[in-house]
Amino acid sequence: MKISKLKLENFKGIESLEIEANGKNLAIYGDNGTGKTTIADAYAWVMFGKSFDGRALEPEIKKRDEKGTLPNDGGVIHAVEIELMLDSDKPMTLRKEYVEVWTKKRGAANKEYTGDKTNYFINDVPMQKKEYDKTLEAVFPNETGRLLSMPLYFCNNLGWQDRRKILMDICGTISDADIISSVDELKPLADVDTSIDDYRKTLKAKAKKVNDELETIPARIDELEKAADINVDEPKDVLEARVKELSAKRDGLFESLSNMEHGGITAAYTKELANIEAEQTKIVGKVEAEISKRKREAESVARGYEAEIKRITDDITRLNKNIEQLGKIVSTADTQAQKLRDEWNVENEKQPNITVSDVCPCCGQKLPPEKVEETRQKAIADFNISKAASLEEITAKGKRLMEQKGKDVKEIDLLTNRVKELEQELKANTDKLESTKAFLSIEPDDISQNEKWSELEHRRVEVMKKMDSVKNEEGLAEEIRAKKAEIESLGNEISAACDKLAAYVQAEQLKARKADLLTKERELGRTYSEIEHMIFLTEQFYKEKVRRIEDSVNSKFSRVKFMLFKQQKNGGIDECCEPTIDGVPVGIGLNKGAEMTAALDIVNTLSKHYEMNLPVIVDNCESYTDASMIDVDSQLIRLIVKAGQKELDIQQEG
Length: 654
Hints:
This protein has 13 helices and 13 strands. The protein is flat and about 150 Å long. β9 and β10 (584-585) form a beta hairpin. With 654 residues, the protein is an alpha+beta fold. The longest helix has 85 residues, at 265-349.
């Protein structure tokens, strides 16, 4: 699509202007305020309903007075008309009029201003706004028209999401499955049944949940460890044994008390005596068995020491023999070394004794003196070479002999030190053997010194006394009271011991809970590592996707390159859509020329994508160099400030 003619009537201060474009490129020169931007606004108002930079124009279409206000103009028609040549070579004329509405109310003498209205025409046919917009939309969508006519609209007026959507429409989509199947490292993602974005969000949520739980475990373990501290002055096995013993003793007292109360006191005491004596017999047997066991163990230990002493003694004997043999070898080495020195001196003192005949052995003729001398010198040289070789061989033998002697001397030192170490081990084992043998000769202690046996003996004596004391009624009553008091005392002791045992039971429960937490911590750690690995794979996936998408998009442009993803500090990737030139984003650090280069490159690509060319209007062209104004495939209208040019100078180009 190209502009054939553009007419302005009373539009933003321009009373009348007609531009014959004939589909050619235009260069419009003028000083500031002469109406260059007004031409761009007129085009945008008719085509898109707003100003060139996207603002609403009404009622700014009217001419302001000297005070800057917009007075009523009595119904002057403010109009823009554009004759277009469509890509189908069919002409189309668009016209929009902005006029005041003056209405005479009933009973009033004069008309009053009641507002403004816009009239719409296509090919001189009046239309309603909806019909006008619908007709234009069929030729070129409104947003597409802005993109193709206003070079900076894509970069300056669209959000990055909209820019990105357009680029994705241009280049098509790259499926996640294609990316995953083409990279071996990403194959584990093939089983994901949601989008990678949703999968990554799920992983992040799981990782946070697992990590939050992991962070609580050390504190919970610490609390369990503190709670598990046992402030009990006796070991658990001692308490258990005491409870068992006291319970058995109390049961016996209950039985004895029952017998007393039912007349069987003598039989009870007799039975108790028998039990006590049986316990004493067990203790004697246990003590004797323990002593026998310890003696057997001591004998076994003694045999071990004797075997170790024999082994050490044998090692010492063997090492001493080695030392003796090496000593002889070292002594022999000194003798051999002296022989080699004598041999070397004899060889060194040898002098050449050479006689050379002056007659040729082949022809019998007399040889020249120089030939004789040459033969003699060669013989001397051969002698010296042979002598040097002999001396070198003798020296090498001596060197090897001394090196071996040095090794043997070091070996003697090492073996000597080892013998000393073994002698110390021998003494230590001998001392231990003597101590063990001394233990074997110890006789068992007197059984009366055994605390448990003595306690039973004391009880036995007491029972016998009680048997004597219960022969009368008073003695029996007193004995019953004593039994009950003892039963109560035993009950208190049992309760106290059970209370202490409860602390051990609680501690064991807490330890079991701690073990469960440690197991859970390891399992959560493995789970967290697995999740982190899958998150890493999604990051690798995004990097691959970034590369492919950016390569695909950027292949469509000759100058501008798009950055479609940003790396976050936490390693993630955010979508974006930033046009750049040489890596510098448009709008951040680029000069105006580079920004226009990017804008026109984008217009060219969008025109190819939409298969549509609209007139391209570039304002402030004086700010751009020729290099910035790259070739476009559309009709180009350049608006250029020219100082001193008080009236517009419109020139066709090409």
